[in-house]
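Late entry, written up from scratch paper. The run itself happened at the end of the previous shift, but nothing got recorded in the book at the time, so transcribing now.
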Amino acid sequence: MKRYLILLVLLAMATSVFSQARLGRSIFEIKSEYTEYSVTEQRLENNDMLLIDLSRAYVKHVFDDQGDCILSLIIPKDSPAVQFYVEKYNKELVIISPTEWRFYAGGSIAQVKLITTDDRSIMFLWSFME
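Output as recorded:
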């Protein structure tokens, strides 16, 4: 019983952390999870992309040729949202540096990087580690 409780807690944590990144998921799976939000599908040169407008952030998912999510960008809408994600990642992921975290699950490693652009926008880049 104790083992099942621990497994349930770990599964809930993994779901919470990946609630927006969705690495490895298909376009269909992600679209079906966000039916209550504005979801826009775009075609890039070599990849499909989903844009999702959430309450705290805009999320962009990029897919490979097989339709699996290989990259997620979480773009917070304001400073409190940035703080929310940093605190969440510091609590739920392995801290590598003040701007980098890792998540280990099912034999895969996800890397999260806080990126500041030239126009001072902040985003979190989720990708699989090689």
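The CA atoms of residues 58 and 72 lie 10 Å apart.
(Scratch paper discarded after transcription.)
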